[in-house]
Each structure stands twice: as structure tokens, then as C-alpha cells.
Amino acid sequence: xxxxxxxxxxxxxxxxxxxxxxxxxxxxxxxxxxxxxxxxxxxxxxxxxxxxxxxxxxxxxxxxxxxxxxxxxxxxxxxxxxxxxxxxxxxxxxxxxxxxxxxxxxxxxxxxxxxxxxxxxxxxxxxxxxxxxxxxxxxxxxxxxxxxxxxxxxxxxxxxxxxxxxxxxxxxxxxxxxxxxxxxxxxxxxxxxxxxxxxxxxxxxxxxxxxxxxxxxxxxxxxxxxxxxxxxxxxxxxxxxxxxxxxxxxxxxxxxxxxxxxxxxxxxxxxxxxxxxxxxxxxxxxxxxxxxxxxxxxxxxxxxxxxxxxxxxxxxxxxxxxxxxxxxxxxxxxxxxxxxxxxxxxxxxxxxxxxxxxxxxxxxxxxxxxxxxxxxxxxxxxxxxxxxxxxxxxxxxxxxxxxxxxxxxxxxxxxxxxxxxxxxxxxxxxxxxxxxxxxxxxxxxxxxxxxxxxxxxxxxxxxxxxxxxxxxxxxxxxxxxxxxxxxxxxxxxxxxxxxxxxxxxxxxxxxxxxxxxxxxxxxxxxxxxxxxxxxxxxxxxxxxxxxxxxxxxxxxxxxxxxxxxxxxxxxxxxx
Length: 575
Fold this sequence. Notes:
The chain has 575 residues and is α+β, with helices and mostly antiparallel strands. It contains 11 helices and 31 strands. It is 29% helix and 29% strand. Strands 1, 2, 5, 6, 22 and 23 form a 6-stranded antiparallel β-sheet that branches.
């Protein structure tokens, strides 16, 4: 055969293959480009949702309370769907259509999480309410929810069997343990605060507190990691006072999520709630929050070891809802016969290589992170799998994607939002995306890296820095440590003109405190710190101010376990 013929034959064979491969390559490139675009849009919508939640909580006096928190999360979810509809508008998707492709939103909070997804409304046959059945006569009758809100009742907000998209009940980061005659539940949080309730040593126990090592108390002197904790702090904050219609600085103290302020010309104190001033006639701030934090943590440790005898509690004592040991599974879903969490001791107070229980690598923190991850993973998988029954005409099989280890690390250590978007056709494949955005500026969690330090230069100008800013080492110009959100701008409404007022709570001598650029923005002076407890070793004044601020800010947080009556007796709190 002539060479010319071979050449023609080669072209006839190769050219179609080349065209097909070129078309396939272009299709794959377009698919990848579209996937990146969708990833960006999903990230933007999730960020918008988080920013809405952050702004609402920072500017709210009641953001810690359950009903206010639900309101803020609902508003955040609405911001997500509005944002994602706006981002996808060019692609022909509106908000109602896109909702069909969002199987779940997850809001991880301090000691639990909410899942925002569809569910079927089921009315309670037992809960009875007094209902007016005759408006003319005023006749009433006790009816159950199922009776008063039946499908034929036109006034019912929700009806039996309705599909509702909203927040499911709050799920705590809890794990049940059984060993010997003990049967109890530990609820974990995003820091070292836990709640214990159940049968221990034949008695019912309900106890809670922070887990800390290395505390010693001698009289009124409290030391933590050989650092003396300041117990005579006088803190000031700038607020809008509705009774005087002015923005002024006041001495304050924070208890159970509420800040109390001292009048300038007297020893009287007051609080501000929803723009109104409430006098606190019996308020008696006899101690600082930092002192209470370390004192109560010391006492809690003694109860765990000596009274409850939980030093031998191990991870393999964890059981499921039915009381059976939790076991691990392989990639195929088969039981391995091994405990789910290992066999290590959970309450490892100062027992391993010089580590303390609050250190990130302690056994306690390993268990805490494992329980939080297991709970979220299990319930989120169920929520997404169940979404297939709500998906209408969508043929996509919604399922929980496999998250990376570094992504789980962000989720289990931060207030965060996890969003999922699945089932959209992007050409060569079906889009299956998710986004994780964390929030390090909130009223719920005081993490180790959320404490900022304030310094004052020779010209009298104050600056704030991250606690691991290397310029702070040996710096004698530091005056205070405080929470990072105290440098966020707040909004108030003028009681007279109804106009918006803007101010920053943390000021110095009536002047704004400036952020250190190399510490807050460029991060060039910030040390790579995964363990702040270890980092503060030998840091002198920096460690003193840091650990005092960390204890003070954590103790002042709102906790559902706090007993209002005890707080009233201790501090004279009225509101």
C-alpha cells in the first residue's frame, strides 16, 4: 500500500477520535469551571448567612436566650436562601426552586446544633390547650393539638401531615456512658465545659463546670499554671444609655450573658435590655468573674475525682440509646468489633507527659471532639437521607458527602454553618457541593484565640493585638485582655430621634482603640499557635492578663445550667 493511502487511512481513523476527545475535554473543562462557579456561589451564600447571624447576635441584648437565638438563626437561614437565589439568578433558578436542592443547613452552637431541613408536622394528641369553640358565648373546651389544629381548621398555622421547612429540635453534644452500676450522660461543648447527669454511685447527679488542671488556691490568692489571677479588676465599656440619651463609658461586670453597669455618681447598678434601662437595686459585685471561674473549676475537679469517682471512666464505656456499647464500622458498614472511641481514660487530669486536661491533645479533648463529630455525622446523615422523601420530582439521591479531616476540625471547634447543595446538573455531572464557614466573633463561645490584648504606646494611643502576637512578649505596655467582639461596632436607636447611633464598646480614655495591622490584618507577627496554654508558659505579664481575661469572659457567658435563683442570692441580680 502506498504511503499516501496510509496517510489518508490514518486521517480517516484518527480525525474522528481526535474530534471526540477534543469535545469531551471541552465538556470536562466546562463542567469543572461550572463546578468552581457553583462552589463560589454556595460559599458566598453561606458567608452571608453567617454574617447575618453574627450581626444579629452582636447587636442583640438577648441573643443568648433560646427564643432570640431561634429568631437569629431563622433570619440567617432566610439570608442564605435569598443570597443563593440572587447568586443563581442568572442560571434561571429562583429561591423556591433552589430550596428543593438544599437538603440541610447545620448551625453548630456552643453545646449542640440545629439542623434546618424539611420535616412532617405531627400534632400532639396528649398536650391539651383551652380553646374557644363559640366566640359568641365565650364557651371553651380542652382540646389536644391534634384536635384543635386538624386539617379542616382554617385558622390552624400548621396542620397534621404538613411539610414544614425549618429548624428541628436542638441536639446536644451528648454521650451516654455505662460501667458498673453507673449510667449517666455527659454533654460536651466547644470548650472544656461539660454537664454530667444520671446515676453515679447509686445517686442521681446533675453537675456542670469547666475542666482545668494546675489551679491552687491559698486564701484569696488564686494561681493557674503558676500565674496569679487578677481578682480586683475594674472594667469599663462604652454604651448607649437610653435614660440620658448619651453614649458614655461605665464600669461593668458580666454575669450569665448580661452586663451590669455602675452609675457614675452612686454605687447603684443597672442593666440594659431591648433598649430599656433596668435598675439593679440589690446588685452586689463582691467578686470578679475570673476568680469565680478558676475557683469553681477547682471545686468541680475535686467532685469528679473524689465524690463521683470518675477517674476510671473510659471511652469504651460509651453506649447508644439502647444501652449497647458503641462499636466502630469499616468502610463497608460492617462492625469491626472495636470500641467506637477507643479505650483511653477520659478525665486525664495531669496524667500524661505533663499535659493538662484542657490542652488540645488531652484524652478529654479527643473524646469531646469524637462525640461532637459522631453526633453531627449521625443526625446529619439521617436528615439528608430522609430528604429524598421530600424531594418531589427531583431524581437525585441526596446523601451525606464525606468531609475532610481539616473540615471536621473547623466544625468541632467553632460556631459554624454547614450548607449543602445537591442535584443541580452542571453538564458532565451532578453537582454535589457543601460549604463550611466558621464564626470566631460571637456571644456564644470564648475560644482560646478570641482573647485580644490591649497596649498603650508612649503617645497614649491604645492598640489591640492577638494574644499570640510576638511583639507582646516582654511588652510592659499591656493593660488588659478582652474579648474580640468588644472591638466590633454596635448599633443603638436614639430614644428621642429614633435615629441610628454607632459606637465601639471598648475604648481607651474616650478614644477608639486601633487594631495592630501586623497582628490583626497581615498576621505577620502572629505565632503559629495551636496550644495557647503551652504558648503562655513563661510569658509573665502577658500570661497574667491573658488567663485572667479568658476566665472572666468564659464565666460571664450565658449557660442554660445557671440557676437564676442562685445568681440572685449571690449577686442580687433582678433582671
